[in-house]
Design a protein that fits this description.
CATH architecture of one domain: Orthogonal Bundle
Strand content: under 5%
Radius of gyration: 27 Å
Distance between the termini: 83 Å
Helix content: 55-70%
Shape: elongated
CATH topology of one domain: Rna Polymerase Sigma Factor, Chain: A
Order of helices and strands: HHHHHHHHH
CATH class of one domain: Mainly Alpha
């Protein structure tokens, strides 16, 4: 029996190459490859969210940054890439998104490298003997509450909750103090050049 319907592509005739080219192709999805974007999202969203939350410390920003990572990866990321490649790409995208976030928040560019100016300095061993003095100068230039929150968080390695309790403020207030203190410390004249 001959198929005379030109619109029926379900059963191309033997030897009819043009009909075979128009048939949608199915691809085999291996165990190491995601089936579609939904699978990529569902398998990686919690991991990216936890990473972002650990870096920014608050739920709204972590959620926004997680969404930004997936939106940024939507175009360039190949669905046919292996799970490891997808995770690596999402992690690299997360780094870029996080760098942009801190650049916007602190008002300074965090990830810029000028090879001509900075690479010669990498050839020399760092002089760590000046670090404690530089830290004392920067902390000494800050108002008392800002200096205290940075000392508790970074020099005494307290959690945000512990530092808030020590300073007798709310966790939200401690976050604001830390953010403002870091911004002010980053602007300390002559310390970071």
């Amino acid at each position: 029996m001959v198929n005379d319907d030109p619109h029926d592509r379900s059963a191309p005739l033997a030897g009819d190459e043009s009909a075979r080219r128009d048939v949608p192709r199915l691809r085999v999805v291996g165990k190491d490859v995601y089936a579609d974007w939904d699978a990529i999202y569902l398998d990686n969203v919690a991991r990216i969210y936890r990473l972002m939350y650990s870096k920014v410390g608050n739920r709204p920003d972590a959620e926004d940054l997680t969404a930004e990572v997936f939106v940024a990866a939507l175009g360039p990321l190949r669905i046919s890439a292996s799970r490891g490649e997808v995770r690596s790409y999402l992690l690299a995208t997360a780094r870029s998104v996080l760098a942009g976030y801190w650049r916007r928040r602190l008002g300074i560019q965090v990830t810029a490298i000028d090879p001509d100016a900075e690479l010669p300095a990498f050839d020399q061993a760092p002089d760590s003997s000046q670090a404690p003095e530089r830290t004392r100068r920067v902390l000494g230039s800050l108002p008392d509450r800002y200096r205290r929150i940075l000392e508790l968080r970074f020099l005494q390695a307290m959690s945000l909750k512990e530092a808030a309790e020590e300073m007798n403020v709310t966790v939200g207030n401690a976050k604001v103090l830390q953010h403002r203190a870091l911004r002010l410390a980053a602007q300390a004249p002559g310390e970071w050049s």
